[in-house]
Amino acid sequence: MAAAGDAVQRTSEPIAVVARQVLVEPLLSQVQLAASNYLDEDMTPPDDPTALCSTHWLPLAAASWPESPRAAHAPRHALEAAVVEVARAAASARLPSMRGAAVAGLEWWLQEQWPDDAPKEHHTDKVLGISSTGVAGEAGAPLHPLLSSVTYLSSTGGPTAIFAQRCPLVRVMVRVRVRVS
Question: Could you tell me if residue 91 is inside a domain?
Fold first, then answer.
């Protein structure tokens, strides 16, 4: 959904692609355990105290997108390995808007959604603290991701709504969101 003041561009490109079983055993079990530990032990406080969760950045190896996305360093844990697998699934979708894109890395975070939790608010995925050159902390217009992903690690949790709107702004990243219920 476009934020107030954002220009909206409509295309005939699919607005969503469903990829099933992107994370398979044994990685799926490792990720579920790692996500549970991460959330239960409150391993990292939010970067922004007003945010729902902490975000993390995983740089991609130079020129690995979209042919074979891989991290610039060996994944440090199952969560980073999962982020790379989800990015590979996204790259294999070969959406027209991704052609020729230079993707520097993957932003990811974990978020719990219990069955009795209030739904998350509608929002537009964007980064407010990174400039159009991709440098954190520089002032600049909000960046919208090339694409966003939601990965469910359980059978519970609220639905994800996707609207057929795009903002024609420079996009320099892929967001990978992992939701744990």
Answer: yes
CB 97 within 8 A of CB 11: yes
Q: Contact at 8 Å (CB) between 129 and 58?
A: no
Q: Residue 96: which pLDDT band, with cuts at 50, 70 and 90?
A: confident
Does a structural domain hold residue 50? yes
What count of other Cβ atoms lies within 10 Å of the Cβ of residue 103?
Answer: 21
Range of the domain at 154: 27-180
Cα–Cα distance for residue pair 101/38, rounded to 1 Å: 32
DSSP bridge partners of 148: 175
Q: Which residues contact 121 (CB under 8 A, 6 or more apart)?
A: none
> How many independent structural domains does the chain possess?
1
pLDDT in tens, 133-175: 555 544 556 667 778 888 888 877 677 888 776 655 444 334 4
* CA 1 remoteness from chain centre: 16
Let me know if residue 73 belongs to a domain. Answer: yes
